[in-house]
Write a structure and sequence with these properties.
heterotetramer, B: about 120 residues, mainly alpha, Helix Hairpins, 4 helices, D: about 230 residues, globular
């Protein structure tokens, strides 16, 4: 009897899950059906099949599908960690970008998730669709694999040379953590303002700093498949700029 | 005819319809998973294969036990279903990386455009 | 025992390729040599005894898995071994990564097991395993077009296998066995119960999705045309044929002949039409594979055992020249950067001589020019097939083939000016060996005709007459092409999307079920 | 919506309904053939669990190919997703200590259950595929609760890959051994023993454990790569 009730639920769930709009509902519907069927198998004298269906059909398949689909209701940001802009302090997320993105996410009704990664991996994740936004002090001077927003904060570039450093200078867009080591191995680096500040805090040592005359601004890079998100973020930043909140925010975090 | 057989056939038909109608690849793959799931249910619920007791006993098996053969068959079907779904998902992920969409018709159109561009080059030559 | 040993050897060496990545190429080559020897051994036994039966583990057939090596199985096994070797020779210098060899070994192992399998569920597992491995091999180079073609293939093939398994369930419910021999006995004993038609329609549709029937296998042209070179040759040359062999096995048990005839006719004509209007050579070859599958199905539907064997002979002949054409096209396309006929003709002075030779011999073979293999295979079918409708269809298809391949003629023209500034491409040694072996196969296939059908008598006069007819058809084909050249038609491509594919499968199932009298 | 889409929906609904009608009207009509009693007599291979004796003895040939289908899936996931490393550090803003604790508590029982299912598959429900997958589910639980990094540090893909291949080789060699005693291929050479005891059913428990090992390693690898590439569709 209980078996019949369980079985009757299966086509109903399938019909609902397959003909509505949310992808995660469809995936969870498949998992639920697998689970119900596993119970049915256990009840009709097929415990081996029940174990396999529960472990493989219900758990493993559902899990990889849930992992793979982009979480709706969540704004995923991937970034190299950088003090002042986007970084962790005593387990709390903080910085200009953290505040900006947090407010933006709240405004459009999404939860914010931030994943930190070195620049190359972060850009790759954005390109592959593993994140919605690439942040962490990006400047729209190279494609980055996504759509850049308008600049939210102006910046400048500085040529930093370690003692005796020669060779072609490299533009450094990576994490703060590896800044010092890269400088000593490469000799000369081009740094934006925030990264230069970070380096000063770590200790400039005997490095020479010379300003370059290139004007630039920090931007967010939005996933190429989300022009709608780029548009909303631009409008959000415009509003903040007009209310003069952007400058106040920068002063609060960067001094 | 058992309730399981009826359910299996209905599930197959619903999932097949979704495969035809839904354009999003995630829905298509879920539907494919359900098609294969329904064949598992069908085999295990065959009138001749069903029983109230599992076919497990150290000695002789009670006559009310289920037929073990369909059960052995579907174990393979479950594993193969997993393999199909995992591999299909991998290729979908790689297509999304390039085209930023899971819409089957858009993908078809984008890829056909690329091919026709290559063809036009050949016609010129 | 040998019949089981061949696939198990492939599986074992596939696992070994996985253990030692660097040695994979050599392990695979050794495995090929070993299995070639085993196939030879099995062939001598089959020729001596007619067929060799073996049940794994010594269990009764009703429950265990029975393997039957008969003449069709041996013919396709031999073709499989030959093409497998050619693929290795062709890819030898490429030094692919280990996973390529792992997948290829599993694919060939599953195909080899499929030729001899006599158990419905075993056939299901093997077909699925072949689907999975060819899926990965088609998408192996990660190009978007390959990935998409391959994904469509997986969706449709897996859906088709769902139907197949439902058919298997119906069979098990009523016959209590999955063994083909036992099943045939049960059906004979039970008269003609209605479930036989239902199961037959389900199984035929399921296998049909994988076997290149036009309305069912709409995934095939793009998948075969975009796969890596040597893989296209293997898939089109022999892997599709394994599913046709399963249709042959099903046709021996279920009353499917009318449905197979109709499907064969549709496949043959539409495949030929699409091939005719396609100017990318790789894609044209893929469409043409459909047309040729239709040719074999028409012969197979003739019903007599001799006709079935003639159909298999045609499949083998087709495997030889189709693999040759794919390899030749690929080799040429590699030097030009495109397989489009316009580009190839424009650059014909730069094409490697090996490629041009391969295309030339392949074209002659495929249009049935005497005395190449296509001619002999058509002779065999003609000798066993006595229905007038079938003969007409076969002639129409031969004409379509000749017209499609007339496109290639400008490639072989005598060069008016030998330009010195353009450098001719070359083939490496492995590629030359592969193409050489296939050319030999196409040239000398005729010698094997007495093995196919014992007691086949072809008088010299009839041979002369048929040879004349073959030349006439080739000429008529060329004329058709010359007439159509100026009236190019863009054929609809929308039917090749997945949605329509699944719909077509369901409709074909209903159609087949009605055609074989399931509604009665 | 274009007319062609409406047409497709209508045709699809008709075809699906037709399919369901044909099957519902003809499945189960006519009597079932064959005898179940014969099945039960035949499956006395010494394994109390008749399903295990079919999967790992009578139809072991199928199971070997099925295992290769699983391996091919793992190989595909590995090859196509291995290319790039995912983000190294995850800062998820929703994180609960209860979930962390639960994962630590649940992991050992899951692993033990998986091992039990595999080792006792010939006596009770379970078997290699189920056992391996259950154990992998435990690992997957940890990767959800503790973040992927903790597991990624312990994850040595090359070693797992090698292990999987070696398990396959060992399995096939065991399957081929009977030929050396001129017994049928894939025959169960070891004595059946006392049905119901742990050391019974000949080679069945050996296959079961090897398959579980392989499935566990493969499923772990698959989960690992999907965790690393999460949210990409």
């Amino acid at each position: 009897m209980s078996r019949t009730i369980l079985l009757a639920a299966v086509p109903v769930i399938a019909g609902y899950a397959l003909f509505q709009r949310r992808r995660w509902v469809a995936v969870l519907g498949m998992g639920l059906i697998s689970f119900l069927l596993a119970v049915v198998y256990a009840l009709q004298g097929a415990p081996d099949v029940a174990v396999a269906e529960a472990a493989i059909g219900a758990a493993l398949v559902t899990f990889i599908y849930v992992l793979a689909i982009r979480r709706t209701g969540r704004l995923t940001v991937v970034a190299p960690e950088l003090s002042g802009l986007l970084f962790r302090q005593q387990g709390e997320l903080t910085g200009v970008e953290s505040e900006l993105l947090g407010r933006f996410a709240r405004e459009i009704g999404l939860d914010l998730t931030v994943r930190f990664a070195p620049y190359d991996e972060a850009a790759d994740t954005l390109r592959r669709g593993g994140a919605d936004i690439l942040a962490g002090g990006m400047v729209a001077d190279v494609p980055h694999g996504g759509l850049p927003t308008e600049p939210y904060l102006p910046t400048r570039f500085y040529l930093v040379a370690a003692e005796g450093g020669a060779g072609e200078p490299m533009r450094y867009r990576d994490e703060e953590r590896t800044l010092r080591a890269t400088l000593s191995s490469r000799g000369r680096l081009e740094l934006d303002l925030v990264r230069l500040l970070a380096l000063t805090r770590i200790g400039l040592g005997s490095a020479q700093v010379a300003p370059m005359d290139e004007e630039a601004g920090y931007v967010f890079i939005v996933h190429a498949g989300r022009p709608d998100l780029q548009d909303r973020l631009n409008r959000f930043l415009d509003r903040l700029r007009e209310a003069d909140e952007l400058r106040a925010m920068a002063e609060r975090h960067l001094g | 005819m058992t309730a399981g057989v009826v359910t299996a056939v209905l599930l197959f038909a619903i999932a097949a319809l979704a495969l035809i109608v839904r354009r999003d690849l995630v829905f298509k793959l879920v539907a494919l998973g359900l098609v294969n799931g329904s064949t598992v249910l069908l085999l295990v619920s065959l009138p001749r294969g069903i029983g109230s007791r599992p076919p497990i006993a150290a000695g002789a098996i009670p006559p009310t036990a289920a037929d073990p053969f369909p059960q052995a068959y579907v174990l393979a079907a479950i594993v193969i279903n997993f393999a199909v779904l995992a591999l299909a998902l991998v290729f979908v992920m790689m297509l999304v990386e390039r085209y930023h969409t899971t819409d089957a018709r858009r993908l078809e159109a984008l890829i056909r455009e690329e091919r026709e561009a290559a063809d036009a080059e050949g016609e010129d030559a | 025992m040998i019949a089981a040993l061949i696939p198990l050897l492939h599986l074992l060496t596939s696992a070994l390729c996985g253990v030692s990545g660097r040695m994979a190429r050599w392990v695979a080559a050794a495995s090929w040599a070993g299995s070639a020897g085993l196939i030879g051994l099995l062939a001598t036994k089959v020729v001596a005894a007619g067929e060799v039966r073996y049940t794994l583990g010594g269990w009764p057939n009703r429950w265990g898995i029975e393997l039957v090596a008969d003449e069709p199985a041996i013919a396709l096994l031999a073709l499989l071994g030959l093409l497998h070797g050619c693929v290795y020779a062709f890819e030898w210098a490429g030094r692919r990564e280990a996973s390529f060899y792992v997948l290829l070994q599993v694919l060939v192992g599953a195909a080899a097991a499929l030729t001899v399998s006599h158990d419905l569920f075993n056939i299901y597992v093997l077909l699925e395993l072949m689907t999975l491995t060819s899926y990965l091999l088609v998408g192996f180079e990660r190009r978007p077009a390959q990935l998409w073609a391959s994904l469509k293939y997986l969706l449709l093939a897996s859906f088709g296998m769902g139907l197949f398994l439902v058919g298997g369930a119906v069979v098990y419910e009523h016959a209590g066995t999955m063994n083909l021999g036992e099943l045939a006995a049960v059906i004979r004993a039970a008269g003609d119960p209605p479930w036989v038609r239902l199961a037959g329609a389900l199984l035929l549709t399921g296998v049909g999705v994988k076997s290149g029937i036009f309305v069912l296998s709409l995934w095939l042209p793009t998948a075969h045309a975009s796969a890596p070179l040597a893989i296209s040759a293997l898939l089109s040359g022999v892997v599709v044929k394994m599913s046709v062999l399963e249709i042959l096995r099903l046709a021996a048990i279920f009353p499917l002949a009318p449905a197979i005839w109709v499907l064969g006719a549709i496949t043959g004509v539409l495949g030929a039409v699409y091939a005719l209007f396609e100017r990318d050579i790789k894609r044209m070859l893929a469409y043409h594979t459909l047309s040729q599958i239709g040719y074999a199905l028409l012969a197979l539907a003739g019903g007599s055992p001799a006709a079935a064997i003639a159909a298999v002979a045609y499949l083998v002949a087709h495997g030889l020249f189709k693999a040759l054409l794919f390899l030749g096209t690929g080799l040429a396309a590699r030097h030009v950067g495109s397989a489009h006929i316009g580009r190839l003709v424009a650059a014909r002075d730069a094409l490697p001589r090996t490629a041009v030779l391969a295309l030339f011999v392949g074209t002659l073979g495929i249009i049935g020019w005497p005395p190449l293999d296509g001619f002999w295979a058509k002779e065999l079918i003609g000798a066993c097939c006595d229905s007038m409708a079938t003969r007409v269809m076969l002639t129409v298809l031969a004409l379509g083939t000749a017209a499609s391949f007339a496109k290639l003629l400008p490639l072989f023209g005598v060069h008016r000016r030998e330009s010195d500034e353009c450098e001719r491409g070359t083939a490496n040694r492995g590629e030359m060996v592969a193409i050489g072996v296939l050319i030999a196969g196409v040239l000398f296939f005729g010698w094997s005709t007495p093995w196919w059908i014992s007691g086949l008598r072809l008088s010299a006069a009839k041979l002369m007459l048929d040879a004349g007819r073959a030349v006439l058809i080739a000429g008529a084909g060329w004329l058709t092409y010359a007439l159509l050249k100026k009236r190019w038609v863009a054929l609809p491509r929308a039917i090749f999307s997945t949605e329509e594919g699944v719909l077509a499968v369901l409709l074909v199932f209903l159609g087949v079920w009605l055609a074989i009298g399931g509604g009665a | 919506m274009r007319p062609i889409d409406r047409l497709r929906i209508a045709a699809g609904a008709l075809a699906s309904a037709g399919f369901a009608a044909v099957l519902l009207l003809s499945i189960g009509r006519g009597e079932a053939g064959g005898e179940t009693a014969e099945v039960i007599r035949l499956t006395a291979t010494g394994a109390a669990n008749r399903v295990a004796s079919i999967v790992l003895d009578i139809r072991l040939y199928d199971t070997l190919f099925e295992l290769f289908a699983f391996s091919v899936a793992v190989l595909g996931v590995r090859r196509f997703l291995r290319r790039t490393a995912g983000p190294a550090v995850e800062e998820s803003l929703v994180e609960s200590h209860v979930v962390r604790r639960a994962a630590y508590v649940l992991l050992p029982p899951m692993l033990v259950l998986g091992a039990y299912l595999a080792c006792f598959g010939h006596l009770s429900p379970g078997g290699g595929f189920g056992g391996g997958a259950v154990a992998a589910t435990g690992v997957l639980l940890v990767s959800v609760a503790l973040g992927a990094d903790l597991l990624a540090q312990r994850f040595r893909d090359e070693r797992l890959e090698r292990l999987e291949a070696v398990v396959l080789v060992v399995l096939l060699i065991i399957a081929l051994i009977p030929a050396a005693w001129s017994r049928p291929l894939l025959a169960n050479l070891l004595p059946p023993g006392q049905p119901g005891s742990l050391l019974s059913a000949g080679t069945i428990p050996i296959y079961s454990v090897l398959i579980a090992l392989k499935v566990f390693a493969g499923a772990w690898a698959v989960v690992h790569f999907f965790v690393r590439h999460r949210g990409e569709v």
